[in-house]
Every structure is written in C-alpha cells, then in structure tokens.
C-alpha cells in the first residue's frame, strides 16, 4: 500500500514539475536553457574526472553484483523446482560455486579494465561535446 502511495506521489510531483517547466518555457523562451547551462557549469566545477571514474566504478561493481545475485536466485529457484529438492542440493551447490567463480572473473576483468574504459568513454564524451558546440 505504501509503495503504491509513494508511486502516486512521485508521479504527481514529476508531472507537475514538467508542467511548470513547460509554462515557464512558454512565457520566457531561453530561461530554462540558461538555467540548464548554469547547472552544467556548476557540475563541471564540482565533479572532477577522478570523481567520475570512482562513481562509474562503483556503479559497475554494483551492477555486476546485482546481475549475478539475480542470476543465482533465479537459477536456484528453477533448479529446486525441476529437481524437487531443497535449497542446498548438490546440483545447486555446483551451480552456485561455478556462478561465484564466474562472478570473480567478471569482477576482476571489469576492475582491471575500468580505467581504460573510462578514459575511452571520457574521450568519446569530449568529442560529442565538441561536435555539439560546433553545431551551434
């Protein structure tokens, strides 16, 4: 019940914010774009490249962990359903062991290659920003 109330409140606030922004945009064209540009400049000053890399690394580690947890839970339920055994059957134990080994290898690969991927991503974003600035 509380989740449903929270969803309704969130959707209502989000839609009212969009309506408010659209009304401001109708009255004073350009003011919203100016505010967005000011926020971007503030973010550039506060958010360094190192912060960006740490944030992305934590996000990817969190994502990979949740992916493997979801995979383990789903397969565990399916194995217990198909083999009609408890939660610690030999088949499930073998699966969870192999899934954990796969998780460790994936985690290690992402952690080692994260810096390279981040710098490539940053270069791509910088190129996109230059292209966007050249369009105007």
UniProtKB/TrEMBL annotation:
It comes from the Bacteria. The chain crosses the membrane at residues 6-24, 60-81, 93-111. Keywords: Membrane, Transmembrane, Transmembrane helix. This is Uncharacterized protein. It comes from Sulfurihydrogenibium azorense.
